[in-house]
Amino acid sequence: MSRTYIYIDGFNLYYGAVKDTPYKWLNLKAMCKGILESHHDILLIKYFTAHVHSTQYDPQKQNRQEVYLKALEAYIPEIEIRYGHFLSNPKKEKQ
Fold it and tell me: How many C-beta atoms lie closer than 10 Å to residue 41's C-beta?
């Protein structure tokens, strides 16, 4: 068995593969096991994310993230969630 540590950038995972799909409740361990060969023994999954904030257009955004992250912690003992800071840059229209 190969001892395996996994690092996931939550922002890129969401916007690159999950957003606008039906896979919002993605089981990260199952996803990784599906990608890796069977000889990998997942010892740790580090999931990097930032707290999101609800907006007037999406008042449940923060709540949905909290529920999802709690579910990950409850069902994947190997997961470690690391919080950073998200910097937002307003989009500028091209002149």
Answer: 11
Strand 40-50 with 2-9, pairing: parallel
pLDDT surpasses 90 at 88: no
Tally the residues of the chain: 95
Q: Can you tell me the distance from the alpha carbon of 72 to that of 94, in angstroms, rounded to the nearest whole number?
A: 40
pTM, 2 dp: 0.85
- Tens-digit pLDDT profile for residues 39-61: 999 999 999 999 999 999 999 99
What pLDDT is attached to residue 42? Answer: 98
Which string of DSSP letters, residue by residue, matches 25-43? T--HHHHHHHHS-TTEEEE
Pick the closest to residue 70 from 94, 87, 47 (CA basis): 47
**Cβ neighbour number for residue 32 with a 10 Å cutoff:** 17
